[in-house]
Amino acid sequence: SQSVETGLDPRPRASKSPKSARLPGPLFQALRSRKSRPQARGSFRKESSPGKAGRRYLFNCGEGVQRLMQEHKLKVARLDNIFLTRMHWCNVGGLCGMILTLKETGLPKCVLSGPPQLEKYLEAIKIFSGPLKGIDLAVRPHSAPEYKDETMTVFQIPIYSERASPVDQSQASSSSLPEVAFMFSLSQLHVKKGNFLVLKAKELGLPVIVTPVILQILPEEICTPPDPGVAFVVVECPDEGFIQPICENATFKRYQGNADAPVALVAHMAPECVLEDPRYQQWMERFGPATQHLVLNESCSSVHNLRSHKIQTQLSLIHPTLFPPLTAPRCQEEHAAFPVPTVRGECLLKYQLRPRREWQRDAVIVCNPDEFIAEALELPNFQESVQEYREATKDVPASAAKQYPEIVFLGTGSAIPMKIRNVSATLVNISPDRSLLLDCGEGTFGQLCRHYGDEVDRVLGTLAAVFVSHLHADHHTASLGKPCPPLLVVAPTQLKAWLQLYHNQCQQLLQHVSLIPAKCLQKGAEVSSPAVERLIGSLLAACELEEFQTCLVRHCKHAFGCALVHTSGWKVVYSGDTMPCEALVQMGKDATLLIHEATLEDGLEEEAVEKTHSTTSQAIGVGVQMNAGFTMLNHFSQRYAKVPLFSPDFNEKVGIAFDHMKVCFGDLLTVPKLMAPLKALFAGDIEEMEGRREKREVRLALLSGRGPQERRVGGSGKSPHSAKSVNHRGNPEIVPSP
C-alpha cells in the first residue's frame, strides 16, 4: 500500500507587501506573526508487501520532525530520501539533526533533492557537526534528471517569483537569493500490475496437463486490472509573487484536466492570503473534482507532542504553578473557502493512494487531559504523596505574584529531541518586560508556543539576548521569532562562521544579529574592539545586569558556562555542558541558583569522563563547592526520559528540572519536597532503571572479581582534569583543562 502522511507546515504568514517580508534564520526568525507551527512533516511511505515496510520519503524537514517521528514510532532508519521545496529555515530547520541521527542509525546513504543552495548548506553545518563520515549524502539539485526508483518518479521544477529580475533568476542557480527560487515536487507512482486470479486461471485450463494443449489466455483474463500511475503534488507558494508563475507553469498544465496520470492529491504549503487569491483558487479547480487538496500552514490546529502534554498534565496535579498546563496559539486569521475538496492538515493525518484513495484519521492525535488525570490518580500512593506534599509546603511562604527572576525550563534533555524532554533551552525572565535565553536547541520555538500559547508574541518581544554555550547542534539550532532591534547573541566566535555561510547561501540574517564573543566576557579578558565594548554595555543595560561573566568549561573546545549578576544582587550560574569544573566553581561562588547539567546517573563516572559530562552527584558536589543557595539539575541523558535516578546526595538544596517547569526563587524551598510524589508518579520507570543498574553492577562485578558495592564510585569524586572526549554526535575533541 502507499500513503501520504501529513503534519503541520510551519510556514509563517506571508506578508502583504515586500516591506514586511520575513527573514528567518538558524538562530532566530524575524516574523511579524510568530505563531506559526513549529513542526512540519509531509512524508510518503511505501510498503512493498503487507507487514513489510519499504521506502520512506520526507518532503521538507522543519524543526521537531525527528522528535515527532520518534514519539509516533516512524522509524528514522528507513528514511533514505528527503525532498526540499525551499532553502528556508522553516523547511530545513530540522535537517541538521536529522542527518546526524541518520548517521548514528547506520543508514549507509540518503538522497537529498532540492534547490541549488542545498550542497552549500550541508557544507555549512559541518562547522559544528564535524565531518559527516559514515553516511553518503547524495545531493541532487533541481537541474539533475528526475528521481526514479521502483515506486515512483519525482520531478522537481523551479519556480521564480514574478518580483525577481532575470539577474536574480540566474543567480539562484549558484549563490542564491532565498525568496527568489522555489521548487515544487510532482511525484508519479508507477503503474502497478494487477493481481493474479487463481480461480479464473483454473477455469481457463491454465494448470499443466500431460497432453499438449495450446491455450490462448490473455493476462487481463486472469489478473485484476492494473492500477494506473496516479500522481501527487507538493507545492509551496510562500507569497503572492509566486501565484502567476505557478498558474502559467507548463508542467502543471500537463497534469490538469484529462491527464494520463490523474493527480490524486495536491499538498499546498501556502498562507491564507495566497489560498484566498482568485487566481490560485482557479488553478486549484483545474485539477478537477476528483483531486483532493491538503492545506499545510499556520492556521492548522493540532497537538503534536502528546506525551509532553500528558506528563505536564500529570505533574500539574502536584503543583499547577510549577507545572502549568500546556496550551497552543490560536490562529487569528479566517480560513479561506475553497471551491474544491480541501482538508486542513493534522498531525498524523494520512491519505492512502493505493489500493483505494481515502483519508485515514485512525492515527490523528487526540489530547484528552481527563484520561491523563485519571491514569495518574490510579497510581499506588500518588494521591497520598501529593496530599503529604501539600501539607509539608502549606507553611512555606507563597511566592509573591509575578516575582522575578522566573526560570522556565524549555528543554532539559541532551543530544537529540525526544518525546518528553527536548534539547537544551532555559528562559530567564528577568522582569515582566525583559528576558534572556540560555542555549537554544532545536524545537525551542515550539516549546515556547506550547508553554505560552497566545502570549508567545509578547514573551518573544521581551527577549533581549541569547547565550550559546557551545556549538553542539543540541544547543543552538533553533529559530526564534524576533523583531528589530538586532538580537544580542553571546556565543563562541566560531558560531559566526556558520551564520555567515547560512546568510550567504540561504537567507540574509546577519543584520538581525549582534554577536558578542563569549571569550570577551571572561574575567580579565581584554576587549580591543570598541564595537564589542558597546555591545557588552548594551547587554548589561538591556538585561539589568551588574555583570555577565563567562568561563571555559570542561566539555568540547570553545565550551563556556556563564554567570549573571543582577543589579538587585541575585546571581544565576549556568554550566552548559561540562564535567566538574573548578573555573565554574570559582566564577559561581555564592550563587543564588546554579543550573548544572547532570547527564548521567551515579556509577557511570567513567562514561561521564569519556563523554565529558557530569553525573548527578558530581553536579550536586559542584553546587556544594560553589556554596550555591540552590542547585537545579538538567540536561539529562534521554535514557532518563521521564525522571533521572535519584542520588543519595539529594538534599533540601537540590531539585530536578522538567520541560515546561517554571520556578522563581520563592519556589525553591518547595522543589526538594517534590521527590515523594515524583517517585509515586514515575514508580514504574524508576524500578526499571534501578533494575538495569543492578544488572550492570553485577556484570561489572563479575568481570572485575569484586562486589557491586565495591564497584560503585563515590558520588562527588573528582574526575581527571583532562580527557579525550567524544561529543554527543561522536566527534573526537580536546577538552580544555581550566
- Share of residues in strands: 15-25%
Assigned CATH architecture of the largest domain = 4-Layer Sandwich
**Annotation, overall tally of beta strands:** 32
- For the report, how would you describe the main beta sheet? 8 strands, mixed
Mean pLDDT: 82
> What are the low-pLDDT stretches, counting only 5+ consecutive residues below 50?
8-52, 170-181, 713-738
Q: Helix segment count? A: 24
Cα(first) to Cα(last) distance is: 58 Å
Question: Order of strands across the biggest sheet?
Answer: 8-7-6-5-4-1-16-17
The amount of helix comes to 25-40%
Name the structural class.
alpha/beta
Rg value: 28 Å
- For this structure, the CATH topology of the largest domain is Metallo-beta-lactamase, Chain A
Question: What form results from the Cα inertia axes?
Answer: globular
Family: Belongs to the RNase Z family.
Protein name: Zinc phosphodiesterase ELAC protein 2
Catalytic activity: Endonucleolytic cleavage of RNA, removing extra 3' nucleotides from tRNA precursor, generating 3' termini of tRNAs. A 3'-hydroxy group is left at the tRNA terminus and a 5'-phosphoryl group is left at the trailer molecule
Subunit structure: Homodimer. Interacts with PTCD1.
